[in-house]
Write a structure and sequence with these properties.
Layout lengths: L4 H18 L4 H6 L2 H7 L9 H12 L6 H22 L5 H12 L7 E7 L10 E7 L4 E7 L2 H11 E3 L6 E3 L8 E12 L2 E11 L8 E5 L1
Helix pairs in contact: 1-3, 1-6, 4-5, 5-6
Length: about 220
Amino acid sequence: MILNILNLSLVLGLIAVLISASDPGTSDETTATKPSERARRKSPKVQGLNTAVIETYLNALENFDIQSSDSFHDSCQTLTSSIKAVADCVQPKRSAQLTAPLFTFINMRRSIFPDIQYRVKHRDRPGSWRGRIDVMAQRKDGILFAFRLWDLEEAVKVLKKFEVKKAQDGWTYFKSFKWPVTHWVLATIDFKHRKGRVIRVNASYLLDTYDTSKAVNVVIE
C-alpha cells in the first residue's frame, strides 16, 4: 500500500467525519452548524501521521500471529506499539479520536480484511442497545479482531452477545459477520495523558476466551 498526499488527505477527511458522527455535541452546535462544518472543527490535529505509521499498524494486524503463546505475546506487543504511534500522531482527547483512525486505516486494506465494522452495537430489541465494540475486523484467514476503548470486563460482556454457534457446521459465527470465525482476539485500549499529550497506552488482549484472568497486558510508554 502506497499513500500519496491526496490519499492521506482523503483518509483524514473520513476520520473527521467518523469523529463528528460519533459525537452528539451540544444542541446549539447541532442546530447551528452543518455536519461537514462540525467534521472540519473536530478533525484530529495530526502530527507526523505518514505512510510509515499507518503501514506499521496495518502490518501488525496483518501479521498478528496466534500459533503459539510466545508469538501471541509478541504480536500483542507489536500491535500495541503501533497503536501508541498512531496515538502520538492524533493525540486523542476522546475515544472516537483514536477509534476512527484505527477503523479507517484497516478499511484501506480490504484485500486482507474483507469485513470491517465500526461502533457495532448489541441490541436487545429494536431501538435499544446494550454496549458497543468500537472496531471489528475479520482477517481473510477468519481471525476476528475486536477493539474497544477502556474496560475489559465490559468488552467481554458485549462480545459474548455477538457470538453465535452454528451446530450444523461446527463453525462459530458472530452476528453481522457473514463468514465463520476461526479465532478471535479481543483488545481493550486505554490511553493516559500528561500536559495534553498521550504518554502511555495500556492494552489487554484475550484470545478465544472470555476469562479476563488470562488477559495479556501490554504497556507502551
